[in-house]
Write a structure and sequence with these properties.
Keywords: Disulfide bond, Oxidoreductase, Redox-active center, Signal. Belongs to the thioredoxin family. DsbA subfamily. InterPro entries: Thioredoxin-like_fold (IPR012336), Thioredoxin-like_sf (IPR036249), Thioredoxin_domain (IPR013766). This protein is α+β, with helices and mostly antiparallel strands and 252 residues long. 50% of the residues lie in helices and 10% in strands. It has a five-stranded mixed β-sheet. The radius of gyration is 18 Å and the shape is globular. 40% of the residues are buried.
Length: 252
């Protein structure tokens, strides 16, 4: 059992990271307010984004102090056979992603940037670890549970790609249970009866809620949000920003 001192230390380090993440978000928001014709920040992702929108410039990110860097480097879970992760467990670079399946910016990132990062996964440089941040009520939670249900049958990333590809084509979705099962079929989930039963699994729902709570404790309030080793990217920035951060982290 953790001591009172351990609990105080845990809360203190979480508060430190939250304060730094908040400074990143504020820098992002201020940059958006100063610029002209820029999209809304990721913290308010409900408005659809045009697919032909011009890429935004990279945002200036404050340099974390050594203690925050240490904590950021401890964020990756590096669990062997984690269904919500892809890439070598010992990859030098880990991209931790927080997303909501009903977020149009998340869909845009998944369709435009995520495929371009596969080369770094394939050569062993990059590991991607997905975490839920359910922002839009019970339907966000239900869709996230469905992703984990697909993951229990080894089809998480197929489901992830299928759902975002469909959701990215229109307004914020309101999927029914039957639609979630249809996505599972498209994603190649082999046992659809088990998948349907797992949609009401309280353990999977709790995993979604736990990830969402952890994100909020870290000061993350919008999606998508990424940490690439010690580099934070708030929102669906241009693909080249992610590639630059990955290659820089790989050389460090």
């Amino acid at each position: 059992m953790a001591s009172i001192e351990d609990e105080k230390s845990r809360k203190g380090t979480a508060a430190l990271v939250a304060a730094w993440v908040l400074s990143v978000v504020l820098a992002f928001v201020l940059g958006q307010q100063i610029g002209e014709g820029k999209r809304l920040p990721a913290a308010t992702p409900a408005a659809p984004t045009a697919t032909n929108a011009a890429p935004e410039p990279a945002q200036t990110v404050p340099t974390p102090d050594p203690e925050v860097e240490r904590i950021l480097l401890q964020l990756p879970r590096r669990v062997e056979n984690d269904p919500l992760a892809k890439g070598r467990v010992d990859a030098k670079v880990v991209l931790t992603e927080w997303s909501d399946y009903r977020c149009p910016y998340c869909a845009r990132w998944t369709m435009q940037t995520y495929p371009e990062l596969q080369q770094y996964v394939d050569d062993g440089t990059l590991r991607i670890e997905y975490r839920d941040l359910a922002l839009f009520g019970d339907q966000s939670v239900a869709t996230a549970v469905a992703g984990r249900a697909a993951g229990q049958q080894g089809r998480f990333w197929n489901y992830y790609e299928t759902v975002f590809a469909d959701f990215g084509a229109g307004e914020q979705p309101d999927p029914t249970t039957d639609q979630l099962v249809e996505y599972a079929q498209q994603a190649g989930v082999p046992d659809l009866e088990k998948f349907r039963a797992d949609l009401t699994d309280p353990a999977l729902r709790q995993q979604v809620l736990d990830d969402s709570t952890e994100a909020r404790q870290l000061g993350i309030t919008g999606t998508p949000f990424f940490v690439i080793n010690t580099h934070v990217i708030n929102g669906a920035e241009p693909t080249e920003n992610f590639i630059s951060a990955i290659e820089r982290a790989a050389k460090s």
